Amino acid sequence: MKKKFIATVIFFIGLFLVSYAHAQQGQKITGSEILGERKESYFDDDKDGEPPRGFQSAFTGKGESGHWVVKKIEHAPSADNVVVQTKLDDTGYRFPLLIMDGVAYRDAMAFVKFRAISGDVDQAGGLVFRYKDSNNYYVFRANAKENNVRLYKVVDGNRSQISGKDLKVKLNEWHLLKVVYRGDKVQCFFNNAKVIETADDTFDSGSVGLWTKADSYTFFDDFVVQESK
């Protein structure tokens, strides 16, 4: 009985320590989320000027396909590297994607930090989830040019808005995008404030990734996905 009590205490201490560490990176997690697989990409072990390891480039829409590379910058959230899409084609319906390898989650929490630097047509960054292929997925994105966030689904290459909210998205500042999804329920957070809560059952599982639009020049860092069981 005493051994069982000690084991229980150790478990909850471990749960607290893991939750605290994760909270320092911008998210709160539950015990059920800890039970699933977790993948983290900080890009700091990748080589400057080369594509990030563990990802595949994909593309939706028209114009030039994307080119994603690791870039060393000052004052990255986790020093020193970020990842950025460098082909700045100004085609309006153009969405370069960077998809994480080896992920096919049904329920999960995912987050990424992004910093919109420039763009004449758009200044956007997004978080892709339940990605089936380059024409079928969800994306939660923020736009510094429009000052809003939007949750979209892309079905057979056609994008439609599920929900959205107008708010200030500052250019040249780091922001946090986070999604928590279980079953048909989706919650979206901007800088840890819940901005969207909705339901949609178009896609039931898939990978996660990063997203930009048109000529957006956007840095991404600290990309984490935590599967929920």
- CATH class division of the largest domain: Mainly Beta
Dominant shape: globular
DSSP strand content: over 45%
SSE-based structural type? mainly beta
Give the domain tally.
2
The largest sheet, given as strand count, sense and whether it forms a barrel, is: 8 strands, antiparallel
Mean of residue pLDDT?
90
**Helix percent band:** 10-25%
Q: Total number of β-strand segments?
A: 15
* CATH topology-level name of the largest domain: Jelly Rolls
Radius of gyration: 18 Å
Low-confidence stretches: 1-13, 15-24
CATH superfamily of the largest domain: Exo-inulinase, domain 1
Distance between the termini: 29 Å
CATH architecture of the largest domain: Sandwich
Q: Count helical runs.
A: 2
Order of helices and strands: HHEEEEEEEEEEEEEEE
Describe the structure.
This protein has 229 residues and is mainly beta. The chain is built from 2 helices and 15 strands. The chain starts with a helix and ends with a strand.
Topology:
Layout (H helix, E strand, L loop, with lengths): L1 H22 L7 H4 L3 E4 L13 E7 L6 E5 L8 E5 L8 E7 L7 E11 L5 E10 L2 E8 L4 E8 L2 E9 L8 E8 L2 E6 L2 E7 L7 E5 L5 E11 L2
Antiparallel strand pairs: 1-15, 2-5, 3-4, 4-15, 5-14, 6-11, 6-15, 7-8, 7-14, 8-9, 9-10, 11-12, 12-13
